[in-house]
Structures are given as structure tokens and as C-alpha cells.
Amino acid sequence: MAAVIQLQRQLLDYTTSLYNEAYLDGQFTQLQQLQDESNPDFVVEVVSLFFEDSQRLLDDLTATLNQQVVDFKRVDAHVHQLKGSSSSIGAQRVQRACIVFRNYCEQQNTEGCLKCLQQVKNEYYLVKNKLETLFKLEQQLVAAGGSIPMQ
Amino acid sequence: MGMATTKSEFHVLAVDDSIIDRKLIERLLKTASYQVTTVDSGSKALEFLGFCQDVESNSNEPSISPNNQQEVEVNLIITDYCMPEMTGYDLLKKIKESSSFRDIPVVIMSSENVPSRISRCLEEGAEEFFLKPVRLADVNKLKPHMMKTKNRDCQKAEQEEVSSQEKIVPPEVQSSEPPQPDDSNNTKRKSTEVEEEVSQDRTRRRYNGLTVI
User: What pLDDT is attached to residue B194?
Assistant: First the structure.
């Protein structure tokens, strides 16, 4: 029981820090609210889709921006998608980095775009790491016999 | 067919090219107790509806339905705006230009708050424009639009029973359509031409619905 209480506190602190440091915003809370007994893995499922989709987009962006002649339309379309999906799961730092990215894309500024790509990647890997840690904590809590507190 | 309908009788067709957003909108709609079908493109939405066009995009795919009539009842379409190939706006136009499907309420979702885009969609006949990410509070606004169509269908059914020659489109529908000063004559002519078709389709569809349920 003590282990459960400790894990619960740890999970709560960790979640709070993710909001405080703006890795996540209220949209992530919305996702959690859509999770219930009939859909116990909803958040993990959506976030996993986000990971897969983002990785594909980042790989394509890296390849596209390293071409001799950059197809900015393609770049913009991908950044647009990444911006949309990050906002849908509440990964607000990724979303913000995408907004800056799109400005450089509009200016057809390859160097700026490459810098932004790096920035988006940094934010993406950060939040991915944070979310994976969060899910691990939740699993530990459930394994210890506790239940995940709902926001 | 009772007038008092429970939410679960409403079937929503959700269109989005993003798998994440499809998953999200599906969950939102199911949480609000609607039946949901999701598709990843406008052309698949049309295919699902049984929208048949003898031209272009559909020609290389096997056509599911030989008739341009609604096979599965869809009470509302909610579509993303920004999609490759057919945009949500294109889909909206196709629906509103179709005699068989124009009564289905269409709601557009977009991650970008572009006023001209919003007004263009509303002028074309969209019921609502939701900014993404869509929330439960947004989804709760859908019901009145679906009720409107259900009630209209019932009214229509009564009218048709009395006299099939009566006007199909009730006045409130006409007034809710945006004024199109440029080619209003054109539009009017088109709508009278298709009226007969509409009544036949409607009748068939209702009976289809009855047998299915």
C-alpha cells in the first residue's frame, strides 16, 4: 500500500511538472478525459500513433530539406501535419516550434528551416521521452495494484 | 419511426486524413453516444455515402453502388478542411450540389483560424466550423443540426403521403441557404429540375431505412 501511495504521488508530481514546463497543455487532459473503462488504453494508443506519424514526418522533412532544390510546398505540408497532430495530443512545445518553422518555410529560407527542423526534433524527442516516462509510471502504479488518478 | 430519437440513432461520418485526429474525433463522437464511421479522404466519404460520379476519380475503382442514393443513413458529416486532393471544402460543395445528399448537415474542422475560410464554408452551407483540436463541448453542438434533419425528414414523409406534388424543400431550408446574387437564376433553375428526383430518392431511402431497422 505504501508503494502505491508513493507511486501515486510520484505520478502526480511528474504530470504536474510536464504541464508546468509546458511540455503538455490542456489538450492532453482532454485526451485523458476521453479514456474510460471501455477504452482503458486510449491515451497510449493516440500517443503511439503520434510517435509513429511524427517519426515518419521528421524523416521525410530531413530528406526533403537536404535536397539540392528544396520542395518547400512539401516541407510546409509536413510541418502543417506535425503542427496539427502535436496540437491534437497537447504537445505544445512541438506545436510552437512548428509555427516558427512554417514562417521560415514561407520565406523559403533553407537555413532557417534546417535550424527549425532541429528545434522541432529536439522538442519532439523531449516530449516523447517525457510521455514514455509518464506511461511507465502509470504501468508501475497499475502493477502495484493502484489506479491511475483521473484529472 | 418515432419522433423521439435517442442519440445513438445518429450516425456521423467523420473525414480526416490524420490518423491521430480520426482516432480523436471517433472517440469524442462515441463519448457523445453517436454511431461513428471514419474515413481518411473526401473521396472515401463519397464512396461510403454511395455518391456515384461517372467521371474521373471513381472510374478506376470498382463502384460500390450503381445508384446515386444513400445506402447507409448518415445524419451528419464532420470533415477536416485541409486534406490532400479533395479538401473539406470540396467535399462540402459536392454534398451541397447533390440532390440526394444536400440535406445531410456538414461541419468543417480546421486547425487554422482563417476568417475568409470560415465564411466561405458557412456560405457554402456548412452548419458549423470547429477549430481544432475539437473538444467535447464542440461535439455537443452537433445534435441540434441532426435533429433538424430528422424532423425535416419526418415532415417530408407526411407531406409526401398527402401529396407527392407538394413542394419538397420547406421554406426554412431555403432561407438558411446563403443568397447567391450572381447566379441566383441558375441555382433556382437547378433546384426545380432536381426536385422530382429528390422526392423519389427520399421515398426509396426511407423505405430502405425502415427495412434495415
Answer: 40
